[in-house]
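Below is a filled-in request sheet from our internal design queue. Each sheet records the structural input a requester submitted and the sequence that came back. We keep these sheets so that new team members can see what a complete request looks like end to end.

REQUESTER: design group, bay 2
PRIORITY: normal
MODE: inverse folding
CHAIN LENGTH: 107
BACKBONE (tokenized):
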């Protein structure tokens, strides 16, 4: 549940920071709502029409991923900060990109 609330928070934050994106998302949502009856719920076809909204949400999650890292398996031996990491080891990386911060791998 934490990742969902984190994602929603960043989507809303980015919509507030980028009024032109907010305007496009709102326009798309209003158009879909206009074609619905007062008591009619959204259906799968309506959701498929939300292409711009989906792209905006994906971009917000790309810029501020809800899971701030991942594990990878090394495909060859390499040296990092004077330590040799053998092929096949699992390594953790933390990817951060909050307002232009470094996105390089941090072990």
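RETURNED SEQUENCE:
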């Amino acid at each position: 549940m934490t990742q969902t609330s984190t994602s929603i928070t960043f989507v809303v934050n980015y919509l507030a920071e980028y009024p032109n994106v907010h305007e496009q998302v709102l326009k798309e949502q209003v158009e879909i709502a206009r074609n619905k009856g007062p008591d009619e719920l959204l259906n799968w076809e309506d959701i498929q029409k939300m292409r711009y909204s989906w792209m905006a949400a994906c971009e917000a999650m790309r810029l501020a991923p809800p899971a701030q890292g991942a594990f990878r398996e090394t495909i060859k031996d390499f040296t990092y900060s004077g330590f040799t990491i053998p092929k096949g080891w699992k390594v953790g990386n933390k990817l951060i990109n909050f307002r232009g911060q470094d996105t390089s791998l941090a072990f």
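SHEET NOTES:
- Residues 101-107 have pLDDT under 50 and may be disordered.
- The radius of gyration is 20 Å.
FILED BY: M.R.
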